[in-house]
Amino acid sequence: MIRFPPKKVLVPIDLSEISWTTLRYARAFSERFGATVEAVYVAGALPSVSGGFYTPPLDKRVRSSVTSYVRSRLGFDCPVRIVRGDPMEEVLGVIDARRPDLVVLGGHRYSAWERFLTGSVGETVVRNAPVPILTLAARPRPIRSILAPVNFTEYGQGGLLFAAEVASAFDARVCAFHVVCSPQECPNPRFAVNNMIAHLPKDLATRCRPGAAIHEGRVADALLKEARRHDLVVMTSHRKSRVGDFLNGTTAEQVLRECDVPVLTIPVGLTEVEKAARASGKRSVAATQGLA
C-alpha cells in the first residue's frame, strides 16, 4: 500500500555531508506529518594496512560508535539501523523488511562511466523499491508548487492523483505537465490533460488548485527545464526495456541525475492511487486518448 502523508520514513546514510542534510530534512518532513524516521547505515569494506580491503565485524562496540557519531552530528536522537554488505542490496533489503511509506535519499551525481562501473545506489533503489522515493540533489526549499509529469495511461492518472495528494498535504499547487513527442501522439493534448485533472476528486482539486502545461520536445529535457519553476517533482518511475535502461535509463532516472529540485518517484504497479484512479472509471483514460 502506498499512502501519503507517510507514517514511516527511512533514510539511507553514508556519513557524507549530504547524509546529514538529508536526515535533517527527513526529520522535519516527518515531524510535519507525525511520522517516525529511521536511518540505515551500510558498513562496507575498509582498506587494510597490508593492501586490499577487509570487512570489520559489526560488534556491539562498532554499532555503538556509529550510532553515537550519527547522533552527535545531527544534534538529536534518531534510531540507526546498521547493516553490512553491498549498499544497493542492503538498502533494498531493509526497505523490503521495514516497509516504510517513504524513503528519503541524498542525491549523488555520477558520470556515465561511473554508472557503468559502479552504478548509482539512488537509481537502483528508485528502479527496484516498491515504495515512493524522495531524492534530494540540492538543499530543498519550501514546497509551494509541484510539477506532476503525466502521460495518458492508467498509471499516469494514478500518478497525478498521488501528486495532488502531496500538494494538498503541503497546501501547494500542482501542475499537470505533458510533453508532446510527436503530433501523432494525441490530437489534442491540452484537452487530454485537462480531462485528467477533471477526474481528480473535487475536494482534492479544490485544495491543490491544479493547472496544466504542455511542451514539445524530448521528455527529460522538457521536464528538467520546467522543473526549475517548481519546488518538487512528483513522477511515476516506469521501467522500460533492459536495452533502454542500459543505454539511456528511464526518464525518471535521467531526471534524477540532473534535476536541481527534489524528485519524488512513485513505483508503477497496482498501487492504492492507481486503484483510486480506476474508481473514477476506465472511461477517463479512454477520453484522454480521444477515444471516448
Brief descriptors of the model:
292 residues, alpha/beta, Rossmann fold, 2 domains, 10-stranded mixed beta sheet, two-stranded antiparallel ribbon, 12 strands, 21% strand, elongated, disordered C terminus
Rg estimate, integer Å: 20 Å
CATH class of the largest domain: Alpha Beta
Q: What would you call the structural class?
A: alpha/beta
Query: What's the number of helices?
Result: 13
Which H/E pattern describes the elements?
EHEEEHEHEHHEEHEHHEHEHHEHH
Annotated CATH architecture of the largest domain: 3-Layer(aba) Sandwich
Low-confidence segments, ≥5 residues, pLDDT <50? 112-119, 241-248, 280-292
Count up the domains: 2
Biggest sheet: strand arrangement:
5-2-1-6-7-12-11-8-9-10
CATH superfamily of the largest domain: HUPs
Distance between the first and last residues' Cα: 31 Å
Strand content: 15-25%
The percentage helix is: 40-55%
What is the mean predicted local confidence, pLDDT?
79
Give the overall form.
Answer: elongated
